[in-house]
Design a protein that fits this description.
mainly alpha, 2 domains, 8 helices, about 80% helix
Length: about 200
């Protein structure tokens, strides 16, 4: 037990991000949105943490801010295309930006990759459970065709907004949380399983 608590204290920032992701996923699951009161402080505190951590390590607070800003940008950039065409909520994009602010580029990228897989699995499961495979398969190919043919983000967003009420919505904060936490666990960022207790 002492070993576990020591690991938690050593990796407290990863546990903080994990907690924020769990809270965001719960809210998104209930309200179908991740609120600004969670995402904006999440991003800002990530910048502050990175400046402090890098400064304490002797690398300089400016370096920490730069690394954190880059992580934030990557988090935004990974989901911005989906948001631009109306396939993603702004809160989901800002949530991943907050992850980037705290854990920077590599962890954010791998967390995103896993969240995409989790999101696809959850989407298929939702369709199968609702027994509306034919309808959603048709919608999927219709959306894919629109993306390939229209290519105008504003027009695509307008079409997506009109179609939104007829679609089964996946609160994407849930896949983001699951994917990122899975990566943290796999990478030994929550508890370093390669370290043995004394």
């Amino acid at each position: 037990m002492e070993f576990f608590f020591a690991q938690v204290m050593e990796n407290w920032h990863i546990w903080f991000v994990t907690l924020a992701l769990v809270v965001a996923a719960i809210i998104d699951g209930i309200q179908l949105k991740v609120p600004n009161w969670l995402t904006f402080p999440f991003i800002l505190s990530g910048w502050a943490y990175s400046m402090f951590a890098f400064g304490l390590a002797g690398d300089g607070w400016l370096t920490g801010l730069g690394v954190s800003l880059l992580g934030t940008f990557v988090g935004l950039a990974l989901l911005m295309p989906a948001y631009a065409i109306g396939g993603m909520g702004a809160g989901d994009v800002k949530l991943l930006a907050g992850v980037g602010a705290w854990v920077h580029v590599q962890s954010t990228f791998y967390g995103f990759c896993l969240s995409a897989i989790v999101g696809a699995i959850l989407a298929v499961a939702m369709v199968l459970i609702s027994r509306s495979w034919t309808k959603h398969k048709s919608q999927f190919f219709s959306i894919l065709n629109e993306i390939m043919v229209i290519r105008n983000p504003e027009t695509l967003a307008s079409i997506a907004a009109e179609r939104k009420s007829r679609m089964m919505l996946l609160p994407y904060g849930i896949p983001i949380a699951i994917g990122c936490i899975m990566y943290f666990a796999w990478a030994g960022l929550l508890v370093d399983t390669t370290t043995t207790a004394m």
